[in-house]
């Protein structure tokens, strides 16, 4: 990546921060608010995500004033998913023609100042070359419009939610002690913080919705959005660094490969190397109005699976028993479809035992579309108080016994509400779909909106449909990667409605 024109830098100052606070005070005060992790900092709901006011002020400022350029690249993530590391890697890759590890600005500047954050409103003029790299913790739907409209490239990094939570809890607890003295004594406990995190009440949360926004966008624009997992970056660092270089349009040459440039960048940007630099041991990052973060707070452990040292078995089970709405990978569980109704105000991570919802299975062989299978699936989710025969609302289409047909099972699962099963019908070559029918009410709604969830066991196909148009199919889970089949857009004609669109679910 060559030095080039950048989006106009804005130098943050006390005046800028004070002006921002005054300008957006009324807008923020009218938002839904809930208690956050610190007593003096409530969480504000903006576009279905929770923000601390200071971060939201910067997000609104970027919304109104930031104008991206077509060649800008954005490194995006939720908080505490490895952003410091991937920033240093991207910066080193993009500037390697001008610096080596002995002259890199990273030796004297924290990575967050080399690649500035959008929502902090602090687009510092880099001490090194001007490169079109920016970072953001903003959800995909909250990015400035110009970023999406211009088709800017995005690199997204996600991480195991339990490791993300542990890192976030430690970070905020330490930062609160330096930015708001007195609050550290009433900062949420580990158990309280984890419960809030599971409910989506965390900075830029709900976490899974944050991840899903970018994941879906990466499926729609794979040439523009590169989706990474922290665990993969740790396990296959060299391969990921090469992929980053390709995406940044500055691939490593044969000569660089021969000279070990990839390995040198990895070593220089390692946790051990960066955390031991003087700037990261003793430096501070100014946040305006007397706020600052000590650079060493950005470096804790950088390990995979460290959550096991902080979360109890009960807390782990709590996380496993949550419906993480819209989760994009399956952690060795099955991908099903979830809709929740009954007056819930917003989709969020919610306990099974208090939530009525529909469960749908796609791709079942006709021989398996029966009450016994429906009950078995329902019991894997929660108590099934009653089930109706799946075949009661289906019409069989021509085809060999056991072939995969388009179909679904819906179950209303809740100990607090009656549970019944209803099938929305099957579609195969030459067959008409049967309208969804529910003996509990509201069943037709799930035809128009399906959100994914995870459940133990085997992979199951999922689709997102709207007005008889098949918009998206995720046919199976291969490892932790969702395999998507080609989509089609129907025009509502009977021919398209009868089109054979098979869901190849994985059963065994």
UniProtKB/TrEMBL annotation:
Residues 70-317 form the Sulfotransferase domain. Residues 494-508 have a biased composition (Basic and acidic residues). Signal peptide: none annotated. Gene3D superfamilies: P-loop containing nucleotide triphosphate hydrolases. Keywords: Transferase. GO terms for molecular function: sulfotransferase activity. The keyword Transferase applies. It comes from the Eukaryota. It holds the Pfam family Sulfotransfer_1. The keyword Protein transport does not apply. SUPFAM superfamilies: P-loop containing nucleoside triphosphate hydrolases (SSF52540). Residues 391-406 have a biased composition (Polar residues). Belongs to the sulfotransferase 1 family. This is Sulfotransferase.
């Amino acid at each position: 990546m060559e030095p080039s024109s950048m989006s106009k830098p804005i130098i943050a100052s006390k005046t800028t921060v004070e002006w921002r606070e005054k300008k957006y005070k009324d807008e923020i005060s009218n938002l839904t608010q809930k208690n956050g992790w610190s007593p003096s900092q409530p969480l504000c709901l903006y576009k279905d995500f929770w923000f601390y006011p200071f971060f939201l002020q910067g997000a609104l400022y970027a919304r109104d004033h930031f104008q991206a350029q077509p060649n800008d690249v954005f490194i995006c993530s939720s908080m505490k998913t490895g952003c410091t590391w991937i920033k240093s890697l991207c910066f080193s890759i993009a500037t390697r023609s001008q610096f080596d590890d002995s002259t890199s600005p990273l030796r004297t500047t924290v990575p967050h100042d080399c690649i500035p954050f959008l929502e902090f409103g602090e687009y510092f003029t880099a001490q090194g070359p001007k490169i079109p790299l920016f970072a953001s913790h903003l959800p995909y739907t909250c990015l400035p419009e110009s970023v999406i409209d211009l088709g800017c490239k995005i690199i997204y990094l996600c991480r195991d939610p339990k490791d993300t939570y542990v890192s976030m809890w430690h970070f905020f607890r330490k930062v609160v002690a330096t930015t708001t003295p007195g609050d550290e004594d009433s900062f949420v406990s580990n158990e309280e913080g984890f419960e809030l995190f599971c409910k989506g009440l965390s900075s830029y949360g709900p976490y899974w919705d944050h991840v899903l926004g970018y994941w879906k966008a990466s499926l729609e624009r794979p040439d523009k959005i590169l989706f990474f997992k922290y665990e993969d970056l740790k396990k296959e660092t060299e391969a990921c660094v090469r992929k980053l270089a390709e995406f940044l349009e500055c691939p490593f040459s044969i000569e660089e490969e021969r000279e070990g440039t990839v390995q040198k960048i990895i070593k220089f940007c390692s946790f051990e190397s960066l955390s031991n630099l003087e700037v990261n041991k003793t430096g501070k990052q100014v946040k305006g109005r007397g706020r600052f973060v000590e650079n060493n707070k950005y470096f804790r452990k950088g390990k995979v699976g460290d959550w096991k040292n902080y979360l109890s078995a009960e807390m782990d089970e709590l996380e496993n028993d949550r419906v993480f709405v819209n989760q994009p990978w399956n952690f060795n569980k099955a991908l099903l479809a979830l809709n929740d109704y009954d007056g819930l105000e917003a989709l969020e991570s919610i306990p099974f035992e208090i939530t009525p919802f529909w469960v749908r299975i796609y791709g079942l062989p006709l021989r398996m579309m029966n009450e016994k299978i429906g009950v078995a699936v329902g019991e894997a989710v929660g108590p099934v108080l009653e089930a109706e025969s799946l075949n009661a609302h289906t019409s069989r289409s021509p085809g060999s016994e056991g072939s995969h047909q388009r179909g679904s099972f819906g179950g209303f699962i809740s100990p607090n509400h009656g549970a019944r099963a209803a099938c929305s019908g099957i579609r195969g070559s030459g067959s008409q779909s049967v309208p969804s029918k529910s003996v509990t009410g509201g069943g037709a709604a799930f035809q128009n909106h399906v959100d994914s969830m995870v459940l133990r066991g085997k992979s199951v196909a999922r689709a997102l449909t709207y007005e008889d148009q098949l918009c998206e199919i995720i046919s199976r889970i291969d490892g932790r990667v969702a395999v998507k089949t080609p989509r089609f857009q129907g025009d509502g004609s009977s021919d398209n409605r009868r089109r054979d669109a098979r869901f190849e679910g994985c059963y065994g």
